[in-house]
# Entry
Amino acid sequence: MKDLLSLEDLSKEELLGFIELAEDVKANPEKYREAVKDKTLLMIFEKPSLRTRVSFETGMTQMGGHGIYYNTATSPLGKKETIEDTARVVSRYVDIVMARLFSFEQTKKLAENATIPVIDALSDYSHPCQILGDLLTIKEHKGKLEGLTLAYMGDSKNNVTYSLMYGCPIAGLNIRVGCPEKEEYNPDRRVIETAKKLAEKYETKVEVLHNAVEAVKDADIVYTDSWMSYHIPQEEKERRVKDLMPYQVNAELMKHAKPDAVFMNCLPAMRGMEQTKEVIDGPQSIVFDQAENRLHIQKAIILRLLGLY
# Structure
């Protein structure tokens, strides 16, 4: 495995391997104190970030390496210089690249032309690092992955939903996506088809439902994400809130999940929108454990792609 671009590309062994390595990294940080000594990670950012930048840069520092933050707003990338040329140049400078770009196609071009590993740290299609960290968090809280059911609620035409729809069935979880019937909120057809093929292969289940209660019924994990992603104009907020409010994760909806169900949101979160304050700040919420585990999974991803562990 050279790159990590989309979870659909991973075997079960590879996916669980990232999680198992992250568990060891988290439990035994001293063991990895100099694991990437003299290694450099280039972090290319076209979209803003808190968790992605801080977790990757901290991860490199804690393992004895170095991270370079590169903002495309002050870069010739895509203007005076092609993504292909950029890939060839940086391959001669650094050891590994993570890219947080708008377009998955651009990230793929970067990987195809680089001779070093490339990580998709978020694009319009994929968010593999987030979901690997989420699976690590679920395993910590539930003691297993196999046989669990995750309910994802709300706007479902996005990178987080797609990566969950790939990662869950491979890891042994069933996933139910609860969203409005309107096309703009539904996962792309190709994603649904691919996810169902993965579910068939790994004997799990993928469903897209339009009834919130039905989607969360007896779920072990209830997950949601922002209704107003970075690319959505503010003038659409009122209409979107109206469409998505039936899928808000509130105390009443959580009652339909299992009594010991956990609540997840990849953050940032807006209290009173995709979830209520009582849920995200309540005893079932594990959102900050989820955020912390981005650090440990990023370390595991770097180590595995560099071929060090």
Observations:
- The radius of gyration is 19 Å.
